[in-house]
Design a protein that fits this description.
By secondary structure, the protein is α/β, with parallel strands linked by helices. The protein has one domain: Rossmann fold. It is 38% helix and 11% strand. Strands 3-2-1-4-5 form a five-stranded parallel sheet, sandwiched between helices. α1 runs parallel beside α2 and α1 crosses α7. The radius of gyration is 17 Å and the shape is globular.
Length: 225
């Protein structure tokens, strides 16, 4: 069985690729060049896809920088040094408008062309991001759209939208990946990396990631020294 795995190069999407392999699917990795301010995550996606043996790794360009509205695509400052209460008080400026809708739509088209039966996405509703397009309600609605809007769905072969991490905490996600032999040193999570692609250790994503490793009594492999 073929699957399409949305692969950003981050911790969650890498874990999804490992799970797709463990589910005995033939995973086709799909990374989106969406106008992000840095390429560190794309380089990480290449490492992860190669290490985990994706059948193919495809890149599609959709420049969301043209509409802006996010600290990840526009000249908007990335929040730093925030505590958990600040992270959860509102939808953060790192939210990219309609990103998961766009990504899943591209993955849906690719899955139809491949004849894939499933799409894996690393959306997660438990931790602090607060992104509206990471909620179970969104995934359920998109799955219904996929059933209605595709030839496969109309013919009674709807493409399965799989979100195996959606109800897991970040420590649980890391534990699952480690159980599957995933090397998190290959991944990238930072919203605002340095010139060499290293993590800032201060943005929300870095802080959530590092706290998760610490809660497991582990060292984040991206922390040197």
């Amino acid at each position: 069985m073929k699957s399409v795995v949305l692969l950003s190069g981050g911790l969650d999407s890498a874990t999804c690729l490992a799970i797709a392999k463990a589910d005995r699917t033939e995973p086709y990795a799909l990374s989106i060049l969406y106008g992000q301010r840095h390429m560190a995550e794309i380089e990480a996606s290449k490492r992860v896809a190669k290490a985990l043996g994706a059948v193919e790794h495809r890149f599609v360009k959709v420049d969301l920088n043209q509409i802006g509205g996010s600290a990840l695509t526009s000249d908007i400052e990335v929040p730093k040094d925030r505590d958990e209460s600040q992270m959860t008080e509102s939808i953060p400026v790192t939210y990219v408008p309609a990103r998961n809708t766009v990504f899943l739509s591209i993955a849906l088209g690719y899955a139809e062309v491949l004849g894939a039966e499933a799409i894996y996405a690393g959306v997660n509703a438990v931790d602090y991001s607060g992104y509206p397009d990471c909620r179970p309600e969104f995934v359920k609605a998109f799955a219904e759209l996929a059933r209605l809007a595709t030839k496969a769905g109309v013919e009674g072969r709807p493409i399965d939208i799989r979100v195996p991490l959606i109800q897991l905490t970040k420590p649980q996600i890391i534990q699952r990946g480690l159980e599957l032999g995933l090397d998190y040193g290959l991944t990238h999570s930072c919203y605002d990396p340095d010139a060499n692609g290293g993590p800032c250790h201060r943005c929300d994503s870095c802080r959530i990631r590092e706290k998760a490793f610490e809660s497991l009594g582990l060292n984040d492999p991206l922390i040197i020294g």
